[in-house]
User: What shape does this take?
Amino acid sequence: MAETVFSRIIAREIPARIEHEDDRCLAFHDVAPQAPVHVLVIPKRPIPALTALVDGDEALIGHLVLVATRIADRLGLAGGYRLVVNCGRDGGQSVDHIHVHLLGGRALGWPPG
Ligand code: AMP
Assistant: This one.
């Protein structure tokens, strides 16, 4: 699989503002935030997109979501927040390594663009 900017962040080859790390995932602040809080939660295993998930990945995906909710609590997003996973070009995915966007800190519009 092609290396992405996210595998380079995991390898600490490029810097990031890290919010959480454990054996399965890393969470860091987005370099171009779209809301006052914009954190990305990524698996350490470089899964390119939702379309590449296989049976057995349920716990990993659930873990990413749970970590995102804990970060939301820690960062004080009591008023609510949004988790987003873009998939493919039409879905707006620009980095081919699955990531959960945690967006919050302002009222978010719906539907997204
Ligand atoms: P997506 O468009 O859903 O693939 O989201 C990719 C996200 O990665 C975008 O919000 C980018 O701003 C973010 N991003 C790209 N490079 C970096 C980086 N070096 N550090 C943190 N976030 C990044």
About this structure: The mean pLDDT is 97. Residues 5, 14, 16, 30-32, 40, 86, 92-95 surround adenosine monophosphate (CB under 6 Å). The helical segments are 5-10, 58-74.
